[in-house]
Amino acid sequence: MIEFEIPKPISKQRFLLQTVAEEMMRPHSRYFDENEHEIPWDYINFMHQAMQSMGAGALAPSSQGNGKEEPPKGKKKFPPIAYQSLAYMLEILSWGDVGMYLVTPGGSLGAAAVEATGTDEQKKKFLSRFNQENPAFGAMAMTEPHCGSDTSSIRTSAVLDPDTNEWVINGEKIFVTAGRISLEEGDGLVVIWASIDPEAGRAGMRPFVVESGTPGVKVTKVEHKMGIRASDTASIVLQDARVPFDNLLGSPEIPKKETKGFKGAMATFDATRPLVAATGVGVARATLELLKELLEQRGVTIRYGLPRQKLSSVERDVIDMEVMLESAWLLVIKAVWMADNSKPNSLEASMSKVRAGDIVTKITQKSLEILGPIGYTRDYLLEKWFRDAKITDIYEGTGQINRLVVARNLLGYHGSQLR
Amino acid sequence: MYGFEPSDEQKMLLDAIHRFTSNDVRPAAHDANEEEILPRDLIEKGWELGILQASIPDEYGGFGEHSSVTGVLAVEALAWGDLSAGMAVLNPGLFALPILLCGSERQKQEWLPQVIEDEWEPYSAAFVEPNFDFDPNDLRTTAVESGDTYLITGEKVFVPFGEEMENCIVYAQLDGSTQGFIVPANSPGIENDGRQSLMGINALPLYKMRFDQVSVPKSNRLGEAEGHDFEQILAASRVAVAALGVGLSKAAFEYSRDYAKDRDVFGVKVAQKQAIAFMLAEMATEIESIRLLAWEAAWMLDEGKVEASKYAYLAFTGSIDMAMLVTDRAVQILGGHGYIREHPVELWMRSGRGIAAFTGLAVV
């Protein structure tokens, strides 16, 4: 059936999250934007408590039970909505403050990587830390100084030491979102992508869980950024860092030389791209709502229903932005709905990221243009959202990489046929 | 819950429409638009799919239930075949659906069965007016009370099948708001100013018509004495036109994708060049996002949601730009070949620009 009713559990959740966004995030947005790298502990501790009591220890579907457990006797099995729930949660929290959302405890992209590539035992073992008394954080590390989009060029290596049955990891990762907080604040983890066979190219790529406190792992830098300044973006150096064999996510047998590893990375992205798109929609919605409010205060109302020729330029722009916003959100919803219903969603996931990256950029840029000298000051959060927005089209696969993924899907091409 | 899959019944209908558009419409479309003639048997064949019949309840001679969502799916699928042919098949809906949505019980009983029984008949509607900033809520055609009748005066354009229609709905301004009136085509005062020549949808016969104090009994006003809520019809039309844009754009995207995969350039296929691949990616993403918005608006209409009208408007406005972007890109991807009338993309681009002006020419 074709329908667009927001599932009741999500409606309820939205109400709570809206309160969090309005009361725990917005009042502190400006402070944590100006005091880059101070940690919003009040928000973090609150979220940790709240998620514990809601039974969601990690921001990852398996811990939320993706509808796979048996329902209580007598109750009809509720269709799976874990990814849809996450999308709504991320959208609202990002509406609040996307930088602060990125330091929400619970594993984030690190947990998502474990979820997408780990065995059931590994998921239990590594995700349980997000359900403990103190908050913990997760991150995923892919990019290196010399390569970002070209993930198969990574040089970080993992060599098996047969005597100790440990992996020895060497390399440098940069631009790791929440890298510092994951390794240095609490019992967190970083999923490090390394190559077990540099000659094999992308076939040699594997994800390794590197837990906080591992010797040989050092945060060497924290970036100063345009936006999302409440979130740390870290460089991590690994020098003969040793992790147990079982920290290699995926099947426990000796890994064969096939593209499973690379496909594992891509599977992670299929799960996370719509969620990152959701954060973009949240920032865009915050911007558009404030724009309309400020315009309304100044006597400009939007007359929906009029033919375009009768609309003022500002009305035209606002209506076009509403179309962008709603249509981008629907792409996100469809992508996560497909994930919830176990339908392969590579195409839709990348489409949602392409669109969201585009529209949050356009909406924040156009809104500031319209508001002229009013929007440009730091009196309003608008200029912060403009700065926060831009990264959406860059991380988790740039808009251009995601266009390549979409195109390959539509054309039936392998990576080698369309670069 | 969210859901993005057509029901089994909808799938069956879509399969039938797809067979019709692939086997019958596509082979005929080029010549039909070049010669500006739609073969009547083609329209009849489409009529046999029972799309309108399936959206009218059985107490009025149909066999289904009205659903804008089903309507949108059907419109998309027909538009994929050919816009003119699709609009022609659905044309009686321009008369029947406003009556179903907004007519009095008596009007429904009187008209609906005759529209949908037997063969396709050119029941139609006069909606669009010749102003650059045509506003369905600010019509220049007026209806003035005169005793037991209304006198309708004004100019209409883009009236489908204006010459052969026997009955149509004419939209006019009454006391400051738009209302629809059931008007027999042979009423005194109606002048047919001839078939129009348009940039696109060339096979569909559209006419310019003048109404000079055309007398219409008060009981012919949709909803009779109480009148009706025009917004419902307008929203249903906007969503339908949005869907026309989606179906047309899908056709253009697929054709240009297939061309790009086949054509060689600089030792590789055209589709292997990033500039082209990115165009295709963006086209598909735009189509999918506006398609979902049209579906959402249609669902809101079916559910009677308060904001349905607004979303119908957003879907329509989005579709205008999407259809222009996609059809333009499709021509660009074919390069010089896209400019030649042998390939359908230039027709689709000519028709694609029309989406902006087609409100009133389709209803779901």
Supply the CATH class of the largest domain in chain B: Mainly Alpha
Hey, which two chains have the biggest interface? Answer: A-B, 46 and 49 residues
The CATH topology of the largest domain in chain B:
Butyryl-CoA Dehydrogenase, subunit A, domain 3
State the helicity of chain B in percent bands: 40-55%
Order of helices and strands of chain B: EHHHHHHEEEEEEEHEEHHH
**For this structure, what is the CATH homologous superfamily of the largest domain in chain B?**
Butyryl-CoA Dehydrogenase, subunit A, domain 3
Write the layout of secondary structure elements.
The complex is a heterodimer of chains A (419) and B (364).
Chain A: E1 2-4, H1 8-34, H2 41-54, H3 61-64, H4 82-101, H5 108-117, H6 120-127, E2 138-141, E3 157-161, E4 166-177, H7 179-184, E5 189-195, E6 205-211, E7 217-222, E8 233-244, H8 260-297, H9 313-340, H10 346-370, H11 372-375, H12 382-389, H13 399-411
Helix pairs in contact in A: 1-4, 4-8, 4-9, 5-8, 8-9, 8-10, 8-12, 9-10, 10-12, 10-13
Chain B: E1 2-4, H1 8-35, H2 40-47, H3 68-81, H4 83-90, H5 93-102, H6 105-116, E2 124-126, E3 142-146, E4 149-160, E5 167-174, E6 177-184, E7 190-195, E8 206-217, H7 230-262, E9 264-265, E10 268-269, H8 274-303, H9 308-334, H10 345-354
Helix pairs in contact in B: 1-3, 2-4, 3-4, 3-7, 3-8, 5-6, 7-8, 7-9, 7-10, 8-9, 9-10
